[in-house]
Structure formats: C-alpha cells, structure tokens
Amino acid sequence: MKSPDELATPPAVTLPNPLLDAEGLRSLRTWITNREALVQGLRYQPFEGTDVTAVPVAEKLIALPRLRHAFVPSPDAVLVAERMLHLIYFELERRNPMAPQNQRWVNMTSQWLGGSVERIPWQPVQAQGMVIEGLTGIGKSHVVERALSLLPQVVEHFPQGQWGMQYLKHLVWLRVPMPADHSRLGFLAGLLRGMDEALGTSYAIKHAGPNARVERLIVVVMHLLVQHRCGMLVIEEAQEQNLAAFSRVFLNFFLRILNWGIPVVLVGNPMAFDLIKTHAQDTDRFSEGGWLTLNPPLGPNTAVWQRIWIPGIWGATLLAGGQEEFEPLPAYPGIADWPSFLWQLTGGLPRQLCRLRMEVLEAAL
Prior knowledge:
By secondary structure, the chain is of the alpha/beta class. 45% of the residues lie in helices and 9% in strands. It is elongated. The N and C termini lie far apart (79 Å).
C-alpha cells in the first residue's frame, strides 16, 4: 500500500526532446555511454584497406596529404571527445524545448534587442564551460574537429506535435577562431559569419556593418545563439596575446554567453588562461564541464607512444612491405630503435610525427 506522500506526489514525466531525437543526434547518447563505440567512431586511418600494389605512384602522391586527417584515439583525445559530447548532450537535454519554461526563455531574449549588454540582468541558470589547453602541435584543434564531426552541425526542424515550432535550423555546434586584431568587434563579426556559413543566413551583413556598436552587437549575437538553440560554442586559437589583449572584457563576454545557456569551450595555449586561473569564480565557471590538458607522451618508452602513436601515425603507409629494422646512426648515439629515434626528432608531438611520416613516404615514393 502506498504512503500518503507517494499518493500526493505525481510520478515524474520524461518529456520527449525533439532536439536529441533528431536525425544525426540520436547516436549522441551511444557515444557518451559506450566508450568502445566512441573509440571506433573517432578512429580514422585514411590508407587503411588500400591495395598499395594496385595504386600508381602518382595517385599515391595525390593521396598522401590525407594523412593529415588521420585520427589516433589516444586516451587523452578520447577523454576530450567524450567530455565535449557529454556537454552537448547534457545542455540540449536541459534546454528541452518541450519544457514550457525553456520556450519562454527563448522568446524572452528578444526584449533586449536594440539595447546594451550592460542593462541585461544576470540570469540564475548558467551553462557549463570547458577549457581544452595544450602546447602548439599537440593536436587540440584536431581532436575538437574530429569529435564534432560525429554530429551534424545543423539540423532542420519542421512543425511537429506539441512543440509548436514552425521551423527551426538547430545549430548543434559552432567553431569560431579568436580574431587576429584582438577586438571584440572582429570576434563578433567572425561569429556571425560562421553562423551564416552553417545556416545559410546573412546575419553578418545585416548586423555587423560599419556602424555596428559592440555592446549592442553582443546582445544580437547572444539572441541568435539562443534562437538557434546552439548546443556548443567552441572558441579556438586562444593564444596568449589574443586573450591578454582584452582579457577581462573577453572573459566577461564569454561569461555572458554561458549565462544565457550556451556552453562555451575555450581551446588554446595554457598561457592564454592565466587570468582565468587567478580568479576562483572564473575557474569554477569555465571548468564545470572540464579543464582538460593535452600533453605529449613523457618519453619514447611510454605505452601511449609505442602502442598508440607509433602504430597509428608511423604505421600508416602507401608502400609495399613492412618497416625495416632500425640501424643505429653515429649522429644519434644511444638510440637503438624507431620509437626512440622518432621521439628525438619530434619531441613526441603528433603534428610533427605526422609531418615527418608524410615527408618520408613522399621521398620513398
């Protein structure tokens, strides 16, 4: 027999979520709950399955640059992809348009158009932020690009059921580089151009003209991100000089985007995030979704270098036959195997290893 409390409490109702039920996003839950499936989905070897004996040398040389797109699912890379996909899933679930309060918020943002961002009150609900840092050449952008490639960037929604939406181009994710001129106006214009490229719109021409005012343009950009239900905004190439030039104003802007429910992921060199690290509140907000640091393998004898990176990159080939035995060189005393030699030449950086492999294959062909 049920207690009075149980009788008084209605059962929880799980609302269907058209954002996550859409074509291309139904697999998102699998990616974040099945690591083996995620690893297989991320892995990409462009030469795999190629009959190298049947391909002319000229065709091999044309195919060689495809090695740049190879993806080796190292533990760090898989963790970054897993966290990013989980963040998108969590935030789209939280912003389920079938929940009346979420639709009211989307409609409410239009009231601040035409005004300055300083006049907008801070909201009680905030999306999660994330930081992905690492040395140049470690493959930060490559990991981000590969993770996002598992999902469509835009999904079209037509009138359906109880949602009441007439038509929507759902912007699942957006990647925007920090501007070379260090200006917020340059960043906002670049963001609008990115939206235009993905959505087929003309927001940049309409809103980012020569008379555009930054404080008002910020409101327009945030409104459009909310309207298109942007699932994640990735800000890349956050080098030290880019964030340092307008560090506080840029961070305040990113916090505003978080405060409007849009997850923000900052990707860049560790030195770019020194200011965030000095403020506990900033660190908490930007790392809620994860503060992930990509490091090269600590040495040529590490398992990740010998068992993952060397087979994954150096093992890619368009040549018939296997790898020849390493022959010690007088110029490199004490080095007696391929992993140690390649470590000496590349410092364990995946980008350098990939470039070296391409040069070797080109010379051999």
